[in-house]
Amino acid sequence: MLAELRVRDLAVIVDARLELGPGLNVLTGETGAGKSMLVDALALLLGERAASDLVRAGAERAVVEGAFDLDGRDAVLKALEARGVEAEEDRLVLKREVQASGRSRGWVNGSPVTVGVLAEIGRQLVDLHGQHETQSLLHAEAQREILDSFGDACAEAAAVAGAFEARERLIAERRQLEARQAEARKRADYLRHVADEIARAAPKPGELDALDAEAKRLSHAEELGRTAEDLAQCLDGDERAASAALGHAARLIAALVRIDPTGAAGWREMLEVATLNLEELARTVRDYADAVQLDPARLAEVERRRDVLFRLDQKYGPGIDRILATGDEAGRELDLLDTAGTDLAGLSGRIEEVDRDFGERCRALSAKRRAAAKQLGASVTKQLAGLGMADGKFRVALEPLEQAGRRGAELIEFLVGLNPGMGERPMARVASGGELSRLMLALKVELARHDALPTLVFDEVDQGVGGHVAGRVADALARVAGDHQVLVITHLPQIAASASHHLVVSKASTDAAVQTHVQRVAGEERVEEIAKMLGAEETAATARKHARELLKAVRRPDRLTA
Fold this sequence. Notes:
The structure is a single chain. By secondary structure, this protein is an alpha/beta fold. The protein is built from 18 helices and 15 strands. The protein has helices at 35-45, 74-82, 115-122, 140-150, 154-186, 188-201, 207-219, 221-236, 242-259, 267-291, 296-316, 320-386, 433-447, 468-481, 493-498, 523-533, 541-553, 557-561; strands at 2-10, 13-19, 24-28, 61-69, 91-99, 104-108, 111-113, 126-129, 393-405, 408-417, 425-426, 455-459, 485-489, 501-509, 514-521.
C-alpha cells in the first residue's frame, strides 16, 4: 500500500505530506484547495508525462516521493523482482523530480531509473481512476486480462499464448527453409559450376605458396647453378680457397702449441670443427649445384597450375582456405535441394499437430470467457443499479476473430448502456466523468478478489451522486477497501464518514503565494469537517449531530454487507 506521499513545489503545493493507511482513505476539502493536484502528483510519480509548468513559480524543481509498504503482497513483490527491482524489507521508495527546464528524473530506492521504469513499476502498485485520465480499464488489453482473471482463465490464456508461439516458431522455420530451398533452386546451375570447378582443381592448403617458391627457383635455375659453383670453388677449389686457409691455420696453431701449450689450448679442436663444417658446406653446395638444372617443362607446368589457382583465388578467395570453404558451401546448398523436401514434410506434420493443440486450447479459453462474460455482465449491471444508475447495463462482448491469435479466438470489449434509448457503447466512450468513475467502481467491487494491485485511487467518484445513492457508493468503496488500500477524493459526507483515514486539504494565502496544506483529522476535528460537508455551519449542533450519526452508522455490520 501507499504509506506516505510527499509533494514539494508542485503547482500551488509548497510542501505537503500525506500519511495513508490500509483500507479506505479519503481526501476532502473545498473546491480549488488542491485535492486533485495531489492525485496528479501521484500520477507524476508513477510515470505520467511531466510539463515544466507544473513546477511552482520561483522554484527550481518539483519533487514527488512515495513510500510503499508491500508486506504480504507476494504477487507484487514477485512482479517487481522479475523486473530487477527488490524491495528493502518489503518497502519501496519511488521519487520523481521535474526541473523548471522540463528535464525529468526518477529513482527507485535511491537508484536512478528512467521515467519508463517508474511507469512500469507504478502499474504494479497503483490503479488510478480520475475523471480526465485514460483509464487502464478502458484499454482492450486490460479488459481482456480482467475477464480472464474474473473467469479464472489465466492459465488457459497462457496455454493459448504458448501454443501460438510454438506454432509461430515452426511456421517461421518452415518459411526460412522454403526460402533457402527456393534460393538454392534458383542458384542451382551456378552452385554446380562452383562446386565442380573447385573440385576439379582440387586445391590443397599451402599449395599456392609452394608453387610460388618452385616457380621462382625454376625461373632462376641458371643463375642459381652458376652461383653455387662459384661458392663451391671458393670453399675448396684451389690454394686460395677457404679450405687451404684453414690448413695453413692448422700449421700455425701447431707451431704455437709447441711453444705455449697452455695459451693455445683448445684452439686445435675449434679449428677442426670449423674444418669439418666447411667440408660439409662444400659438399652440400656442390650437390645443390649438380641438382639445379634448367627444366622448362616443369616451369611451364608450375605456371599453369599457378594460373588455375590464381583464377580460383580471384573468384572465390582470397586464399586457398576460402576457396575450399566456398566449395563446401556450394555443396551444402546443393544438398539442401535433396533434403529440403523431407525436412519440409516433417515440419508441416509438426505444424499440424501444434495447430490442433492450439485450436483445442483456444476452445477451452473461449468457453471460460463466455461463462465469465455472462457472469461479469450480470454482476456489474446489478452493482450499477445500486450506485444510482438504475438504467445502467453492462455487457462483455466477445467478437470472434477470423483467425485466432496469441490472445485467443475473440476480441473482448466492455459495452455500456447508461440511458434508455441510447443503446450500448464501448466503455471507453462513456463521456460523463462521474458515470465513468462509478462504472469503474462497480467493476472494482466485482474484481476485488482477483485484482493484485495494492492501491486503488478514485478521483470524483461521487460526481452527480446524492441522497441515498451516496451511501451505496460509500458501501461499495468500503467493500473494495476490504481487500485493497483505497484513496478517494470526495465531496460526499457519507463517503468521508465511511473512511478509516480522513485527510483534509486546505489552502492559505500569503503575501508570496497561495499554498496547499494537508491535515489528518480524527475525533471532533473529523466531526467538524463532515459537518461542513453536510452544508451547515460548523457550529450548528444539528450538523455535528448528523455527522456523528454518519460516523457511527458506518461501523454497523449491516451497512458493510448491504
